[in-house]
Each structure stands twice: as C-alpha cells, then as structure tokens.
C-alpha cells in the first residue's frame, strides 16, 4: 500500500511509465503503491504486466482480492477491490463480489467487470500472473439466510447483525466480526449497490427506534384487534426463538388463522411480521401456482422468522399439501441427488409458518399440526380503527427494534424453555382430559417463550394476571379446535363453501338465510339463531363444490344431527330482488332449518 507522501511521486512517474523499458526507473515509491512482483505492478494508475518488450497496462485501475468467502456448499466468492485505496484520498474504490467462475478465464473476468462499467484488456496469462501476485487474504463465512445464525450466535438483518443486544454494523466490505470469525453480509450497499433490489432484504432491515417498545406496540395491537391477536403474538415471540423450541421438541406448530372477509385476519399477521423490519410480503397459494421447490426456496430465505402463506384452500395440490404438513417437522422440499451415493438433496425450513384462509382445513393429520385462531368479527369500533391507523403509521418507520428487544432475552429463553414447556403441558393435561396430546404439545411449545418473558417481567401484555389469563384462553382454544375433529368432512366443506359464497355476494342474507332474535328474561338477544333455506343454498353450493358435492339429503342429515341444530320451522324471507329497503315484500312461510348461530359462529367461524 502507498502512503500519502508517495502518492504524488508515484503519479508523476507513472505518467511516462509505459514509455520506458527499464524497470530500474520504477521508483520504490511506486512499488509500494499496491503490489509488485517481477512481472506484475498495481498502482493508483492501473494494473501493469511486464512483457519482454515493455510494461503493458491491462487495466486503468488496480484491483486486489480483499476477502475470500465460503458458503455451506463449498462455493467460493471473493470480494475484489477495484480502484484506488480510500486512504490515498483519491477516488473511492468499488467493491464487487465475484465467483470462482468469474476468475476461470480473462473473458469471464472481463465480462464480470464490464457489468460494473470497468474494462480489462489482459489475456488469460496476464490474469493468472496477477492472481499469483496477490497477497494472502482473509477468509469469511457467507451469511446465506437472514435471521438467526448459529455460527455467529447473532441475528442478521439485511443491514446489521444483533448479538447479545449489541448492534454490529458491517464494514465497507460487508463484513462483521463475531468472536474469532468474520461473516460476509451480501446485502450491504458497497457490494450490491443497494438492498432495495431484493424485496426480502428490503423488508428485513433493522431500524433504530428508541421511542417504541414491545409493551407500547402490543397495547396498540390489542386495541386494534382485541383478543384475536394474543395467541398470534405469542407465536411471533416463539418464532424469534424457533431454533430453541425445535431443538428441544423436534417440531414447530403452524399458526392457522381462519377468518371471513373483513375480519382482520390478514391485518393481524401483517402487523406481526412488521417486527422483523417492515410488514413481510405474503405468498399466495391461490391457483396452485407455486411448486414445492419454489416455495421451499422462499421459506428457506430466513431463520427464526415468520413466513406467511395466504389463501390456503382444501383443493391445494397434493405435493404442496404434503410439504406444508412436513414443515411441522422442519422438512421442506426434497429430491434425489445426482450423485451415485443415493443421497437426497433437501431444503430445510428454519422459520415458522403462518397460514391464513377463509376455510377450515379438512385434512385431519394436517389440522392436528396447527394452532387454530378464528377471527370472525367483521364490525370494528372507532377505537379499533384509530389504533389500527396508528399501527400502520409506526410500521412505516420499521419495527425491527421490537425483535431486537426480545432478542436480548435469548439466553433466558434457552435456560428456562424446557421447564416452562413441561409446566404448561402439565397445566393443559390436567384441565383437558381426553384431548389428543399433540394439541397440548403444540400450545405449550408456542406459549413457553412468552410465558418466560411474562414471568420474568421482561414484557407486559395486559394489566390482569396474564399467566392465568393466557393459560385459560389457550385451554379453551385447544378444546374448541379438538372439538372440530368431530365434525365430518361433509359438514366442514359445506360451511366452508357457504361462507365463501356469502362473502362473494352469491348467497344473500334475508333471501337465502336469515338471522333471528330471541327474547329471554324480558331482554332481546339479537342474532341468536340462523334460518337456512337449504333448497336455495344447495344450488350454488353444488356448483362450487363440483364433483365433490354431496347430496342435499346427506347435508341435511349432517346438519340436523349437529350440536348447533335447534329445530325445523317455517320462516318468511325477503322476496327475490328485494334488498333491505323500507318497502319489503316477503315470501310465504318456507320450511327452514334453525341453528344456534352463536354456537355455529364460535365453532366453525362462519359469520353472516
């Protein structure tokens, strides 16, 4: 490297360097500018190769390999400095990341540089001589996933790493030190030209915000979404420490949020994913357009985070359904290797999976691997709307400070997880006799991290005794989800389709079904029952269900023998084409099935 005093001397002599054949005329100051061997000289004026005739400039710039980076597949990358050293107070250097293939020939090297608007005129021999002249460089580990990195024992956002509550900022090469190892962060500006080019990295950034804390944020979340957000928030906390949970239990439950249109199910998840930077983008399952391979790659981009798949449906193709089911055990896409040793190439999933849907899942095996949250309230108070508006405003500035706040307690979670999990499992086991223990395992696992933080008073979620409050809420949730297993696939599918048809406007309240009030103890209870014109409902249902449609008689028998069936009686409905205007025309009394609407809504999540 040149010192500042030699810069002017080196520059002056290099003005005539290419006209001299005498190597002795090259001053010692020039030799110190960059690298010098018998045949290679790199200085602020460029890169030179000594031929038998003269010094030949192969590039207008010097370049030097600064770091060698290795990834988990033993592929090698190198950070190359193009241009002057910033210590010389000349032009700022450019740092680029090149693969081994880029160095395999002068043509490929030239092509790689050309993309950065730099020219290289040398041939293969010149490139080889330059590479041989390079001094030894530092080795680094490539950060392949955002989120938790076990080698660094740190949590990587796209722009910084968080370790033991400390923010580690990358240097100009995109490197951070953790212990005695160096880690290369691929999204830093100096290497890639800006993290905004990658949607995942752009949303998964660390933003400083000293004003916002978990407690303040959760109060807004609770004001906006009421109790529907509590279990999902516990799931988010568990996701930040997913590796601890998975190492102990060997599984990670799937959060399944079911809700009708306008219930806020997507808003809840979007608000929760904002704690990893900005609200994360969902992946749509509609239309079966994603393959297991492409989905597994998306799910493999982050560790100890949340991946959101939207619009789950029961007609999802079998291989995708199987992959989603296997994610409970941490497995992703698998395929046979091209090697001769019968190995299988796999993409493991290291983040938590969240599904949102209008449907209840009909696959029993898959359903037992989920934590079900049913959001079925579509009416929002002015206070809820105001709180939600505030959430959106603070999300614009990024909320990764909340994730960083929770990460400070990782050691505490490691130490206490097993004990808290055992306590919670016993709590549920004693209160819920006869329940499939997988449901108890699932709930105890995702609650344990939040319970530890509450017990240690590191966070606060409500003013009440939340340990008991949360336990009772979770036990009730387990019981209700387990009860759904008693429902036949016929019943689930029918109500799933009816809800979707209602949300589309194909089925209308007042004409096809009707909410009825009840009077008890002199008080009017609104919308206690729902009357069904099954004959009218069956036609759009059968069209939507296609060859999966059951007979009207079979559906009628299932409904009549359900626990929410009340009676059969004649009910008058609005006439065809008559909306809920002032002047109403009514049908003649029509035979109808009367159901307990409040029980139906609570159990199956329907909302009319």
Question: How many strand units?
Answer: 26
Helical region count?
A: 22
Beta-strand residue percentage: 15-25%
Largest sheet features: 6 strands, mixed
Alpha carbon gap, first and last residue: 75 Å
Helix content: 25-40%
Principal-axis shape equals elongated
Average per-residue pLDDT, rounded, comes to 84
In angstroms, what is the radius of gyration?
A: 32 Å
What is the subunit organization of this protein?
A: single chain
Enumerate the spans where pLDDT stays under 50 for 5 or more consecutive residues. 1-22, 336-345
Query: What would you call the structural class?
Result: alpha/beta
Largest sheet: spatial strand order: 7-6-5-8-14-13
Description:
- By secondary structure, this protein is of the alpha/beta class.
- The strands form 6 sheets. Strands 7-6-5-8-14-13 form a 6-stranded mixed β-sheet. Strands 12-11-10-9-17 form a 5-stranded mixed β-sheet, with no helix packed on it.
- A hairpin with a 3-residue loop joins β1 and β2.
- α7 crosses α14.
- The termini are far apart.
Brief summary:
The chain has 608 residues and is an alpha/beta fold.
Please describe the structure with a list of short key phrases separated by commas or semicolons.
single chain, 608 residues, alpha/beta, five-stranded mixed sheet, disordered N terminus
Give a topology summary.
Blueprint: H1 7-14, H2 28-31, E1 35-36, E2 40-43, E3 46-50, E4 55-59, E5 63-70, E6 76-82, E7 94-99, H3 106-114, H4 124-133, E8 138-142, E9 146-149, E10 154-156, E11 161-163, E12 166-168, E13 175-178, E14 181-184, H5 189-192, H6 199-203, H7 214-225, H8 230-240, H9 242-249, E15 254-259, H10 265-273, E16 283-284, H11 292-299, E17 302-303, E18 306-310, H12 318-326, E19 334-336, E20 344-346, E21 352-357, H13 364-367, E22 370-375, H14 382-395, H15 400-407, H16 410-431, H17 437-455, H18 466-484, H19 489-504, E23 513-520, E24 523-532, H20 534-545, H21 552-560, E25 565-571, E26 590-596, H22 597-604
Parallel strand pairs: 5-8, 8-14, 9-17, 15-21, 15-22, 16-18, 18-21
Antiparallel strand pairs: 1-2, 2-3, 3-4, 5-6, 6-7, 9-10, 10-11, 11-12, 13-14, 19-20, 23-24, 24-26, 25-26
């Amino acid at each position: 490297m040149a010192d500042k005093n030699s810069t002017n001397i080196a520059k002056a002599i290099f003005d005539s360097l290419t006209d001299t054949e005498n190597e002795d005329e090259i001053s010692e100051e020039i030799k110190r500018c960059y690298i010098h061997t018998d045949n290679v000289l790199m200085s602020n004026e460029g890169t030179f190769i000594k031929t038998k005739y003269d010094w030949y400039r192969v590039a207008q710039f010097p370049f030097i390999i600064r770091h060698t980076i290795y990834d988990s597949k033993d592929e090698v990358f190198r950070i190359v400095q193009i241009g002057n050293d910033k210590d010389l107070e000349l032009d700022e250097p450019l740092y680029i990341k090149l693969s081994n293939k880029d160095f395999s020939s002068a043509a490929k090297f030239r092509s790689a540089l050309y993309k950065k608007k730099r020219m290289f005129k040398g041939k293969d021999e010149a490139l080889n001589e330059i590479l041989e002249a390079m001094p030894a460089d530092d080795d680094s580990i490539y950060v392949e996933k955002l989120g938790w990195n076990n080698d660094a024992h740190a949590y990587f956002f796209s722009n910084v790493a968080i370790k033991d509550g400390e923010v580690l900022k990358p240097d100009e090469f995109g490197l951070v030190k953790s212990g005695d190892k160096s880690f290369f962060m691929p999204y830093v500006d100096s290497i890639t030209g800006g993290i905004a080019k990658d949607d995942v990295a752009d949303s998964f950034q660390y933003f400083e915000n000293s004003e916002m804390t978990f407690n303040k944020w959760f109060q807004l979340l609770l004001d906006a979404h009421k109790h529907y957000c509590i279990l999902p928030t516990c799931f988010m906390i568990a996701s930040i420490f997913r590796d601890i949970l998975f190492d102990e239990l060997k599984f990670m439950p799937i959060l399944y949020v079911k809700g009708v249109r306008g219930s806020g199910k997507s808003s809840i998840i979007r608000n929760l994913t904002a704690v990893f930077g900005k609200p994360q983008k969902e992946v749509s399952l509609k239309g079966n357009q994603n393959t297991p391979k492409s989905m597994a790659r998306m799910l493999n981009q982050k560790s100890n985070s949340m991946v959101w798949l939207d619009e789950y449906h029961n007609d999802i193709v079998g291989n995708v359904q199987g992959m989603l089911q296997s994610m409970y055990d941490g497995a992703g896409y698998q395929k046979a290797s091209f090697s001769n040793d019968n190995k299988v190439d796999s993409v493991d999933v290291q983040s938590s999976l969240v599904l949102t849907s209008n449907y209840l899942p009909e696959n029993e095996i898959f359903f037992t691997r989920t934590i079900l949250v049913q959001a079925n309230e579509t009416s929002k108070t002015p206070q809820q709307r105001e709180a939600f508006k505030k959430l959106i405003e603070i999300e614009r500035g990024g909320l990764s400070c909340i994730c960083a706040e929770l990460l400070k307690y990782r050691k505490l979670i490691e130490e206490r997880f097993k004990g808290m999990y055992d306590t919670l499992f016993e709590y549920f086991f004693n209160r819920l006799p006869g329940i499939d223990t997988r449901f108890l395992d699932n709930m105890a696992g995702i609650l344990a991290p939040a319970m530890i933080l509450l017990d240690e008073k590191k966070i606060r979620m409500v003013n009440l005794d939340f340990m008991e409050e949360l336990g009772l809420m979770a036990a009730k949730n387990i019981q209700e989800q387990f009860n759904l297993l008693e429902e036949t696939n016929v019943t689930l599918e029918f109500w799933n389709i009816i809800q979707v048809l209602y949300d589309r406007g194909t089925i209308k309240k007042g004409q096809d079904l009707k909410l009825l009030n009840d009077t008890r103890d002199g008080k009017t209870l609104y919308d206690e029952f729902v009357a069904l014109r099954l004959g009218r409902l069956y036609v759009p249902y059968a069209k939507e269900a296609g060859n999966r449609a059951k007979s009207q008689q079979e559906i009628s028998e299932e409904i009549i023998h359900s626990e929410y069936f009340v009676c059969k009686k004649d009910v008058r409905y609005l006439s065809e084409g008559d909306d809920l205007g002032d002047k109403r025309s009514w049908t003649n009394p029509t035979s109808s099935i009367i159901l307990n609407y409040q029980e139906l809504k609570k159990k199956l999540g329907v909302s009319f």
